TrEMBL record:
It comes from the Bacteria. Residues 20-234 form the Histidine kinase domain. It is found in: Cell membrane. The chain holds residues 445 to 678 of 678 of the full protein. Keywords: Cell membrane, Coiled coil, Kinase, Membrane, Phosphoprotein, Transferase, Transmembrane, Transmembrane helix. The keyword Membrane applies. This is histidine kinase. The keyword Phosphoprotein applies.
Amino acid sequence: TTKQLIMSEKLAAIGEITAGVAHEINNPIAVMQGNLEVVRAVMGDRADEAKTEFRLLDEQIHRISQIVTKLLQFAKPEEYAGYVERHAPDNVIDDCLPLVQHLLNKAEIDIVREKSAKRLLLMNRTELQQVLVNLIVNAIHAMPDGGKLTFVTRDEDVDGRPGLAIVIADTGVGMSDELIRKVFDPFFTTKRSEGTGLGLSISQTLIKRQGGRIAVESEEGRGTTFTIWLPEAA
Ligand code: ADP
């Protein structure tokens, strides 16, 4: 439809602008990082007096460079296509959990696993991890007072082809219907300064590129369920 056409042209334009801006930002970040090291070295013992400030500078520079990486991944996903492998979905979940263990402990979140997928999927390991960690971190953010995070894997066809489903369900704040409609939009966030609003839009791009789908179901005050479907690795 015309509306879809306009939307995809808009996205393409956003992509071009974003890639340009992200590349431009990379150089000054590298210069700042280098100079910070020099200042620290020149200050020698006195650098300790500004320990907190140095840490903050390090963290914020790191944060900017992460945002830039995310922007580039969103804008030029083809350049990040990388190398794909066959994975058992439960093994990928096993690999992701240690990365977020400290957050899970802090928020007192219990993990529930239902492993029934026998099929393997085909995807770049880092990208699949990125998608799952994105969803897990969002779920943790949605459960500030603790809760339950459930992972289900099962064999399930996708668009008439053999595939598998990975379900990530939280018992968090949930979303209104209006929010549900917007969550996959690039730059949509309700997290103010902490959010980029790119997590879900990048995740959707990566999953679609692998021939899969991602969907959300949610109820305010009850929780949210994201389901990813991926085709079985031939
Ligand atoms: P970000 O996390 O940077 O805001 P995302 O694209 O990952 O970007 O998410 C967009 C928005 O979707 C979030 O700001 C939040 O409002 C909503 N959201 C995502 N996952 C959940 C969840 N599990 N529960 C409630 N809201 C969520």
